[in-house]
Design brief:
Jelly Rolls; mainly beta; homodimer; 10 strands; globular; four-stranded antiparallel sheet; 95 residues
Chain lengths: 95, 95
């Protein structure tokens, strides 16, 4: 058995997919930088280490989430992220 | 830039290395099973999703850690782990 690993943004974001006790999930790491992620399923993003400053689609407010904090992203949407320190996250995908 | 990913135990454990805001770190995932990990540096292991039941070297007690809980492992030691659901963890390495 081998877990699926993925890289995005030229390797600046890396993740490992797994099945959590509730939902399909990934854990990953983001390099310092700015990214835009699109969603298919609804996502529950929890910062594990570091922090993420995010802006949801069709909003104007940037909000910072620190380790232990979670934000939700609607399905078929997107969000912008600013990362100022290498940051680990957990993402759960609603089925 | 690309993060270093590693696999252990025939791919049953996978991790991504990064630099946390304090210490060198990895986030990773463990498949259901039983493993023994050796340490070089002192480690701070935090369960991110799922749970880990562990027994430190030279102890006899198994103890279960759930999401959000942390255990420490001394340098140049080892610990046994039982995993009953795919589990994600954060590991910080003391320099």
């Amino acid at each position: 058995m081998s877990f699926q690993t993925n890289e995005y943004f030229d390797g600046n974001v890396a993740s490992i997919a797994f099945q959590s006790d509730t939902l399909p999930a990934t854990v990953g790491v983001m390099e310092i930088g700015e990214y835009t992620f699109g969603t298919e399923a609804k996502e529950y993003m929890t910062v594990v280490s570091g922090s993420l400053t995010i802006k949801l689609l069709n909003t104007t407010e940037w909000k910072t989430y620190n380790a232990g904090e979670t934000f939700e992203v609607e399905a078929n949407s997107s969000f912008d992220v600013k990362v100022t320190v290498q940051t680990a996250y957990l993402c759960l995908y609603e089925k």
